[in-house]
């Protein structure tokens, strides 16, 4: 009896997740969220599911499936969703802000350095090592996620088809996810057991205590009444006070539109963003967009953070204000218009998605999306890996095939060595995240110093 009471007491203690505890966890996730969506999803899964046990694997994947369907940065939206589950609207705000803030600050620092000095070798060397570590962490995440989400042969096949569709045929990301969902919906209606969701998995917190809201028309109207003005009121004020031709208004208009079409992450809209920012608006020179993407890849936070770099250079060059002040305002406007909608999509849609968790047919569709997401993350990881280990990547286009391939002659043996070292630290020595990142960053600086001597 005493043992049972002790277990009940432990369970009750675990259910109490204070805002202070959540703050430091989200702060840790924010400063370590390198490597684009693959690395960020892997990091959250490792900390929130494996280490903390605050949500189960099934609940985590259920939220991820919804975020994959939304425009905007899916990892940011996943952080907001989990934060909302834990501590309501305040939790979602805290999670989203802490997830984004380190990247915003780092991107401003790098943008200022870029504008003043060009690329800084020491910073490049530091992030060179960090990217190798993140690639190792992403590889581990793909393996763990595949082991948990791909419970049978049909799910493996669906994951493989999703990967091939994206990597080999460059089929649009939303179409792949939509097809997977429709297939799962059909499988559920036909009663196929292959896509019956797995059990809830282990979670140290009683999930009945996670936050939920009964969706209603009144709730939806209330969210829209708050968050649409939060998102668009600054744009309306700029249109009224500055006029439609002012550079700040143009930045706001451009990135508010871009926020609605950024399915599949930064790379999916990079060509359109570059064309408009370079050729139409003239905010950047042609090569500077790639430099900005390189800076965004080396900072924590989503890769779409490159919008801040674009807004920064636009404000710096076109505002007529002090260049630094103009750049800071332009970068803030671009970030605001891009990331505020993520809070709107989650606070508006999460209650409806939570209400669907116990519907077998819809859960079958989400299970199929989960399998496809494994293929999506594998594609992202491979793309990221190519750009870490090789200096040049080219496209092969033959008939329906349109795929990115590394130029093998451009293999960076130092980068490959760092990745292998990070893999050894993770899988052989079983070191923690901070240790792997710290060792890799230091090794990157040392290799840069040695090769430069």
How would you sum up this structure, described in words?
- The chain has 453 residues and is mainly alpha-helical.
- It contains 17 helices and 2 strands.
- The protein has helices at 2-15, 19-32, 36-51, 57-68, 74-117, 121-149, 153-167, 173-189, 217-241, 247-258, 266-280, 286-298, 306-318, 323-355, 360-389, 413-428, 433-452; strands at residues 393-398, 401-406.
- It has a two-stranded antiparallel ribbon.
- Helix 7 runs antiparallel to helix 8 (173-189).
- The protein is globular.
- The model is unreliable at 1-14 and 199-205 (pLDDT under 50).
How many strands in all? 2
Mean pLDDT: 82
Largest sheet: 2 strands, antiparallel
Strand content: under 5%
* Proportion of helical residues: over 70%
Overall, the morphology is globular
**Total helical elements:** 17
Question: What is the H-and-E element order?
Answer: HHHHHHHHHHHHHHHEEHH
Gyration radius, in Å:
22 Å
Low-pLDDT residue intervals, each spanning 5 or more residues: 1-14, 199-205
The end-to-end distance, rounded to whole angstroms, is 69 Å
Taking strands numbered 1, 2, ... along the chain, how are they ordered across the largest sheet? 1-2
Helix/strand-derived category reads: mainly alpha
